[in-house]
Amino acid sequence: GENVEQHPSTLSVQEGDSAVIKCTYSDSASNYFPWYKQELGKRPQLIIDIRSNVGEKKDQRIAVTLNKTAKHFSLHITETQPEDSAVYFCAALRGNKLVFGAGTILRVKS
Amino acid sequence: GAGVSQTPSNKVTEKGKYVELRCDPISGHTALYWYRQSLGQGPEFLIYFQGTGAADDSGLPNDRFFAVRPEGSVSTLKIQRTERGDSAVYLCASSLSGSNEQFFGPGTRLTVL
């Protein structure tokens, strides 16, 4: 089955700096890779996603890159703000099920 | 519009009891998913419905867990003879037919004492 690894587990950045979170997956048949943001006690919220036929996607301060050959994808947040502080999860879609990474706690210090 | 809703938001029960957790998907979403999230971990897949039928129940940990979606809308996750290890947040998600995007509900926090 699919296995998704996510790094780092925690990340502290200064407000205004960039943050990068990386994930690797094992199953080459996975074809859809979403990123979710989860604040404490709240639901996971989809912030950006990428499909396997695309190498990069950007939405304002957030971008995701995908390297199918290496089976890894990354989330990039530029000009970080305190409200970006949350837990971020990557996931890979295998069939109809999402397989999630373990999460990254992002702290943006002001 | 209304998002995915789940009730109750919190459930405390005693070991050995039976519990039911309810999920109301976004209107028109034919696909419904249940996930379980333990503290400090990502959600783990339990079961997927397409319409009324369970298309994939490979994530259910054992036969104490069962889920139904009789009319293709609301779903109920049922846990028999609860154990302390069942304590977690149970998340429901839904998506449109043919779409990969899954939208999550707020979850039910289950605590088994």
What can you tell me about this protein's structure?
The complex is a heterodimer of chains A (110) and B (113). Chain A is mostly beta strands. Chain A is built from no helices and eleven strands. Chain A has strands at residues 4-7, 10-14, 19-25, 32-38, 45-51, 56-59, 62-67, 72-77, 86-94, 97-100, 104-109. Chain A is globular. Chain B is mainly beta and 113 residues long. In chain B, 0% of the residues lie in helices and 49% in strands. Chain B has no helices and eleven strands. Chain B has strands spanning 5-7, 10-13, 19-24, 31-37, 44-50, 53-56, 65-68, 75-79, 88-95, 103-104, 108-112. In chain B, a hairpin with a 7-residue loop joins strand 9 (88-95) and strand 10 (103-104). Classes of the chains: A mainly beta (110), B mainly beta (113). At the A-B interface, strand 4, strand 5, strand 9 and strand 10 of A face strand 4, strand 5 and strand 10 of B.
Oligomer: heterodimer
Describe the biggest sheet of chain A? 6 strands, mixed
Q: Fraction of residues of chain A in helices?
A: under 10%
Kindly state the number of beta strands of chain B.
11
Mean pLDDT score of chain B: 96
Count up the helices of chain B: 0
**Helix-strand pattern of chain A:** EEEEEEEEEEE
Given the C-alpha coordinates, what overall shape of chain A results? globular
Structural class of chain A: mainly beta
List the helices and strands and how they pair.
The complex is a heterodimer of chains A (110) and B (113).
Chain A: E1 4-7, E2 10-14, E3 19-25, E4 32-38, E5 45-51, E6 56-59, E7 62-67, E8 72-77, E9 86-94, E10 97-100, E11 104-109
Parallel strand pairs in A: 2-11
Antiparallel strand pairs in A: 1-3, 3-8, 4-5, 4-9, 6-7, 7-8, 9-10, 9-11
Chain B: E1 5-7, E2 10-13, E3 19-24, E4 31-37, E5 44-50, E6 53-56, E7 65-68, E8 75-79, E9 88-95, E10 103-104, E11 108-112
Parallel strand pairs in B: 2-11
Antiparallel strand pairs in B: 1-3, 3-8, 4-5, 4-9, 5-6, 7-8, 9-10, 9-11
